[in-house]
Amino acid sequence: MAVKDIRLQDVLRVLTPIWDDKTGTAVKVRERLEKVLAYATVQGHRTGDNPARWKGNLDMVLAMPGKVSGAKNYAALQLDDMARWWHALQGREGMGAKASAFQAMTATRSGAIRFATWEEINLETRLWTIQPGRQSSKIHASDTAKRIPLTNSMVALPDNLPRLKGSNLVFWSPRGGALSDAAMGKIMRVIHEANLASGAKGFVDAKTAEQAVPHGLRSAFRTWVADRTSFDGDLAEVALFHKVGNKVAQAYNRADQVEKRRHMMAAWGEFVQGIEHNDN
Fold first, then answer.
1. Region 267-280 average pLDDT
2. Of 51, 62, 152, 165, which one is least surrounded by beta carbons within 10 A?
3. What is the pLDDT of residues 28-83, one digit of tens each?
4. Contacts of the segment 173-181: beta carbons below 8 A, 24+ positions apart
5. DSSP states of the chain
């Protein structure tokens, strides 16, 4: 179809068959459609509203992704397997392994890691600041900048990385661009398969028995806070860049509690590495 002819019903024809059973894929397809059609509008190839827009459009006819029966959580590492997984990760070379280690310690999304730049990371103040709208950060352009406190272990990792001439990327691919999402996933898969080959049980989700994936590291962090520590749950939600409280509370409480989170993330880092820690 010509982009100028695409309407809401055409978008629904693509999304509806997979919305319930392949929700994660469907959400990504919708997001990509919205971006392509927005680009087409800016370039003058179409006019009018974007039929792939979610708010005030598709949300009126499709169920929220999180409420769809077919939706599921990302396969997460089991907490009792975390230190064993970390040890296996340390035996891997390459930028993908380093990026995975940084993701595990910071509990951030893989997109935030893959497109991290040296301008964002201040090793002296030990802060990683991601600006709104930054590529693959999942931080909306209308939101505020997100600050991630860096612990000693976190700082040591990028500080020892080789820098690529002509590139500002912290983690870069062999060809010089950003690491792909597949590269991050491959590290998890290779470690899992190698562990199985050694006669061990691999690294799988406790409920689904599926191989753990990079995004599941965030789930593992949240479970650790709830089940193994006395840290405040809202503090963990802030660390995950989730909204806390209702809109009124969000408007009045804009503190990101970065120093409190630094203490929590230091404890998490030690847990990941198998180091005993008392968070009290």
1. 82
2. 165
3. 899 899 999 999 999 999 999 999 999 889 988 888 876 665 545 789 999 999 99
4. 173/95, 174/95, 178/114, 178/115, 179/95, 179/96, 179/99, 179/113, 179/114, 180/114, 181/110, 181/111, 181/114
5. --GGG--HHHHHHHHHHHHTTSHHHHHHHHHHHHHHHHHHHHTTS--S--TT-TTTTGGGTS--GGG-TT--PPP---GGGHHHHHHHHHT--SHHHHHHHHHHHHT--HHHHHT-BTTTEETTTTEEEE-TT-TTS---TTS--EEEE--HHHHHHHHTSPPPTT--BSSB-TTSSBPPHHHHHHHHHHHHHHHHHTTS---B-TTT-PBP-TTHHHHHHHHHHHHH--S-HHHHHHHTT---S-HHHHHH-----HHHHHHHHHHHHHHHTT------
In total, the chain counts a number of residues equal to: 280
